[in-house]
Amino acid sequence: MLSFDDGASIAGASLLVLEPRLAALISARAAALATPYGDLADLTHILVVEAGDTEAQIVEAVDFSPMANPIDGARFGDAGFQPWWDWLQRHDGWFELIVCVGDSGFAFVLFVADAEGVDRRLLDLCRTSAR
Questions:
Q1: What ranges make up the beta strands (E) of 1-131?
Q2: Which pTM does this prediction carry?
Q3: No. of H helices and E strands in the chain?
Q4: Can you spell out the DSSP letters for 35-65?
Q5: Are 66 and 24 in contact (CB under 8 A)?
Q6: Gyration radius of the chain over CA positions
């Protein structure tokens, strides 16, 4: 699991990431954070979820699980589960899940590897819910 939680670490992330598709995704997201209204990089936390990372580790890193609705506690796979994140998109080999928090512009961006060894339930959630 890789975590980039401020503008400086996000700016340097693509230099640390060896997987070229992920490096390109992080670079694109970093460029999108520089808006005409100000740089949102310091209001963004990027988390990279890879093979072997657990749901508990995701919760430890960002204080939520994409697989549990924070309003009613329903989990992915439960009859009453409703997607609650702001964005979930499929990319080549990766999923990008965005959760905006409050009105400040703060957001969590999770890049989830579409790969063997990634939590199977998380991959099922991404594969069935992504655009």
A1: 2-4, 34-35, 38-39, 44-49, 87-91, 94-101, 106-113
A2: 0.93
A3: 4, 7
A4: ETTEE-GGGEEEEEE-TT--HHHHHHHHS--
A5: no
A6: 14
The residue written with tokens 């990319």 in the block is: 91
pLDDT tens, residue order, the chain (131 aa):
999 999 889 888 878 877 999 999 999 998 898 876 667 888 999 999 999 999 999 999 999 999 999 999 999 999 999 999 999 999 999 999 999 998 888 999 999 999 999 999 999 999 999 98
Report the distance separating Cα 32 and Cα 72, nearest Å.
32
Angle at 51 between CA 50 and CA 56, to 5 degrees: 75
Alpha carbons within 13 A on the beta-carbon side of 116:
0
Q: What does the block give as tokens for 19?
A: 């997987």
